[in-house]
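2024-03-11 09:14:02 DEBUG pipeline.ingest accepted 1 chain
2024-03-11 09:14:02 DEBUG pipeline.ingest length=228
2024-03-11 09:14:03 DEBUG pipeline.predict start
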Amino acid sequence: MTALFTYPKSAALKRVVPKSRIYAQTDATTALKDRFVREVEQITWAYKLAPETINLPATKSVTEVQIFHVILKTDTASDDVLRAIDRAIPFPILFELLHGDRIQVAAAHKRPSEADSAKWVVSGHLRSDWVPESTKRNSLPVAINMASLYEQMLTALMPIQAEPDEDIPARLERVDALRAAEREIVRLKSKLQRETQFNIKVGLHGQLQEAQAAFEHMKKPGKPGGER
């Protein structure tokens, strides 16, 4: 299942969100505003998935899920930009990022803070690959409530297989561990390419093989980074 879904007409909003609204809601710094100017052409609140629009009951943690279209000037939307929009809108958001004829889906896991229900805890952003905008979309997942729908939409963005009874926060921990392993592989490859001494290159090659094996191992349920 991909993270591109077909949304019902009953949920359509198509409201342009001024960047100034995001700035005001987040006390945006000059650097963040500059990043918005460089990267973002337009933000549209495209769909509102809620009990009254898709006939699914709300839960305490997820009352609605919003779908935002973000037209980009480049093929990159910084995490800082997406995080600012998430901070400004007090609902879970699934982003459809558009550049030219391509599309990428991104989302963070958002949940109300246990210490202060008026605040939100936001994870790092998950992202799909860039694909043609004409890519066939899936029907919305079958769900019993808004929380179940949101979980399945996030799951479609995760590069790992879920374990039985594994909740989203635990799965995100495994994703973070996987990303750290990826970064280590990139670091070792770069170091190996720059190294000229044979004996050091041999040692780095061994470390790289171990890191790659560990990375593949971690992608499987129940492996390091996701053990119970």
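2024-03-11 09:14:41 DEBUG pipeline.report Confidence is low (pLDDT under 50) at residues 223-228.
2024-03-11 09:14:41 DEBUG pipeline.predict end
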